[in-house]
Automatic annotation (TrEMBL):
PANTHER family: LONG-CHAIN-FATTY-ACID--COA LIGASE (PTHR43767), NONRIBOSOMAL PEPTIDE SYNTHASE PES1 (EUROFUNG)-RELATED (PTHR43767:SF1). This is Long-chain-fatty-acid--CoA ligase. The gene is lcfB_3. InterPro entries: AMP-bd_C, AMP-bd_C_sf, AMP-dep_synth/lig_dom, ANL_N_sf, ATP-dep_AMP-bd_enzyme. GO terms for molecular function: long-chain fatty acid-CoA ligase activity. Its EC number is 6.2.1.3. It comes from Paraburkholderia domus. SUPFAM superfamilies: Acetyl-CoA synthetase-like. Residues 26-415 form the AMP-dependent synthetase/ligase domain. Pfam families: AMP-binding (PF00501), AMP-binding_C (PF13193). Gene3D superfamilies: 3.30.300.30, N-terminal domain of ligase-like. Keywords: Ligase.
Length: 562
């Protein structure tokens, strides 16, 4: 194993295996701390006993009234909320598999995931119900619909996101809400009130637990198959690495559908028996209020959040002294900002690295010796090397190559994609490694640094965007003949999307019209920030679009405004 001389003091290099499953962590914490607050939600609160009770009731409903059986995939398509946490653990309790879906996804994007993994059941926020409704009776047989405001306190002085308080058309008028058989939609409260009892929990370490979807180099997002073992390992390893106390509240500001928020905030807090402070939408002032009010000790935040947070004009008036650990990843933290963060919080910003294929962290900076703009070192039981991407020769310090990873957190493969799974792995010296598609190097201290993306991928505030997927969606516009998508530098989000567009003969369309159309057909972070019209795209002799030429041109251009 490639241990750095700066391995955290007193930390074992290996974890006992297997770790308790994610659901077993909830059982343990609820048994030990039944009256402890499991989560705060804009003034509302839920104890561990209440959380377990509602998880049991929803799991029973999934099994008894929705027909969920062991191994079934269940989609979770909603914002950060108490219902997200309850739904996630209820799916696991029902011996089923969580399929987290970005709530920004459109109907077409949702359809791909639902049909790809074969999920028949969906847990939805009411604000995305109309996106999912076209799939009812077609791909989805049962939907359980949540209203986030149901878990609010009677009154609060905290700023509430519009998605929590906004009036939604009367969904109950739809006929599926009065149906007694599939296709059927049920209100969240009604599902819990049914008080169905689930069958015994029987999931094993090698059973599938979570299938997060990731955009790869092809147009179609792929499902990453994670077992109870792989998911639990990351949580246990990260908790030991960060050395958190159960008394440390955890701010859940990162999206919980994303593997970082899911694992490092929600699942870590429950395994630790600490209190989650859940934010439905990011709001820098609200985050400061929550940290102060609930004495938050751990916060996982991407650099975009920190830029916004540190820009608060009256930041100095908030008591942030409770923060013990501040960590993140996704996009490199600017050096000047990292120094300001450490000066304000009194702790360094610990950067880490991970993928959907590893269900979060594989590398983290040692708490006692963080390096800036650095991925960190491989965590417990994790082997990582840098190789020549073509010859697979293992490279020495300071030589850039492809980062490879081997460890218990690595996924089983892509759902239904045997060819893609085969291509994702390579064996070197008898060890099976995941090819990350990321270029980086190792320094003399064993720390890993990111250089560029071998795969054609854009990183928008930690969200991975496949250019090929965006191009495919853009081709659906009647005025677009061809499109090539590249990354542009952005002061706030790290990178943004730019589209070079060739319009059809006789078509009359503006960049703004294309952008407005794109907002209706893809998640907002995928929408091109810039549309540039060209008469033709550069091509190779074989007719392939030379996207690298366009990307290199953008790399030489100044950053966008923040």
């Amino acid at each position: 194993m490639n241990y750095s001389p700066y391995w955290p003091d007193g930390l074992a290099h290996h974890l006992s295996s297997p770790q308790p499953s994610l659901y077993e962590n909830l059982e343990t914490s609820a048994s030990r701390h039944p009256s402890k607050v499991a989560l705060h939600y804009y003034g509302g609160a839920l104890s561990y006993a209440q959380l377990r009770q509602e998880v049991e009731a929803l799991a029973g409903f999934l099994q008894r009234q929705c027909g969920v059986v062991s191994g079934d995939r269940v989609a979770l398509y909603m914002q950060n909320s108490p219902q997200y946490v309850i739904g996630y653990y209820a799916i696991l309790r029902a011996n089923a598999v969580v399929v987290p879906v970005n709530p920004m996804n459109t109907t077409a994007e949702l359809r791909h995931i639902i049909e790809d993994c074969g999920a028949r059941i969906a847990l939805l926020g009411e604000e995305v119900y109309e996106n999912a409704r076209p799939l009812l009776g077609d791909a989805i047989s049962h939907a359980i619909v949540a209203r986030y405001a149901d878990y609010l306190a009677d009154s609060t002085d905290l700023p509430l996101p519009a998605v929590v308080t906004a009036a939604v058309p009367d969904l109950d008028a739809h006929p599926e809400f009065s149906a007694t058989s599939a296709p059927r939609s049920v209100r969240w409260r009604a599902a819990l009130a049914a008080a169905e009892q689930p069958s015994p929990y029987v999931a094993s370490p090698e059973d599938l637990a979570v299938i997060p979807y990731t955009s790869g180099t092809t147009a179609a997002p792929k499902g990453c198959m994670h077992t109870n073992r792989s998911a639990a390992h990351v949580v246990a390893a990260s908790l030991q690495w960060c050395d958190l106390s159960p008394d440390s509240a955890v701010l859940c500001a990162m999206p919980l559908f994303h593997v970082t928020g899911m694992q490092q905030a929600m699942n870590a807090a429950i395994a630790l028996g600490s209190t989650m402070v859940v934010m439905t939408r990011w709001d820098s002032r609200c985050a400061a209020l929550l940290i102060e009010r609930y004495r938050v000790g751990f916060w996982i935040a991407i650099s975009t959040m920190m830029v916004d947070f540190m820009s608060l004009p009256d930041l100095e008036r908030f008591d942030l002294s409770s923060i013990e650990r501040l960590a993140g990843g996704g996009a490199a933290m600017p050096k000047a900002l990292a120094e300001r963060i450490e000066a304000r919080f009194g702790v360094p910003y610990m950067e880490g690295y991970g993928l959907s294929e590893t269900i979060s962290a594989t590398h983290i900076n040692p708490p006692q010796r963080c390096k800036l703009q650095c991925l960190g070192i491989p965590i417990q039981d994790t082997e990582s090397i840098v190789v020549d991407p073509t010859t697979l020769e293992v490279l020495g310090p300071q030589v850039t190559g492809e980062i490879l990873i081997s460890g218990p957190q690595v996924f089983k493969g892509y759902w239904g994609r045997t060819d893609a799974t085969r291509d994702a792995f390579v064996e070197i010296d008898g060890i099976r490694y995941l090819r990350t598609g990321d270029l980086g190097y190792i320094d003399e201290d064993g720390y890993f640094f990111f250089v560029d993306r071998l795969k054609r991928m854009i990183n928008v505030s930690g969200y991975k965007v496949s250019p090929a997927e965006v191009e495919t969606l853009l081709f659906g516009h009647p005025a677009i003949q061809e499109a090539c998508v590249v990354a542009v530098r952005d002061a706030r989000s790290g990178q943004a999307v730019k589209a070079f567009v060739v319009v059809r003969a006789g078509a009359d369309v503006s960049a703004q019209q294309i952008t407005e159309w794109a907002h209706e057909h893809m998640a907002s972070y995928k929408v091109p920030r810039i549309v540039e019209f060209v008469t033709a795209l550069p091509r190779t002799g074989s007719g392939k679009v030379q996207w690298r030429l366009l990307q290199e041109r953008e790399n030489a251009s100044p950053s966008l405004a923040g």
